[in-house]
Each structure stands twice: as C-alpha cells, then as structure tokens.
Amino acid sequence: MSSTAAVTTAPGSGGAKTSWPEVVGLSIEEAKKVILKDKPDADIIVLPVGSRVTDDFLPNRVRIFVDTVAETPRVG
C-alpha cells in the first residue's frame, strides 16, 4: 500500500475532490470527518460492501462501503 494518496476529481466538478482513498482503514466516524472537511455539504451514506445501489448521480452523495465488524457481536 502506498503512503501517497491520489486525489481524484471528476470532469465538471470544478476541481473538487471526488474520492478519498486516504480514509480506507479508518473508522466510519473518522472517515466521515475527513470527507466532511473536504466536502461540508456531503450526504454520507454507509453501506455494507456488496450492497445494491442505484446508478443515479447525486453530486452531494458520498457512499462509504464497510466490510468489517468493529466489535464482537453479543446476545443481549
């Protein structure tokens, strides 16, 4: 894994950041803070990896896909 993160921007985005590879491995809350720092108007949606999503484009939507369990699941 490289220590340098590429900044990705989309055509027509005015140079605004459109992806955050640097948040991979962070907690959801930490990732949200980083994303909101760059894009304060982001509508962040957290989904399990493999979730079905619509292919419509909403410029403020940022999807975070999560595939780990943060704590031991317990009954009660």
Specify the overall morphology: globular
As a percent range, the share of strand residues is 15-25%
- The secondary-structure class comes to alpha+beta
Mean pLDDT: 85
Low-pLDDT stretches: 1-5
| Rg computed from alpha carbons, rounded to a whole number of angstroms | 14 Å
Instruction: Sketch the major β-sheet.
Output: 2 strands, parallel
- Estimate percent helicity: 10-25%
What does this molecule look like?
Residues 1-5 have low confidence and may be disordered. This protein has 1 helix and 2 strands. The protein has a two-stranded parallel ribbon. It has one helix spanning 28-38; strands spanning 43-48, 61-66. The radius of gyration is 14 Å and the shape is globular. With 76 residues, it is an alpha+beta fold.
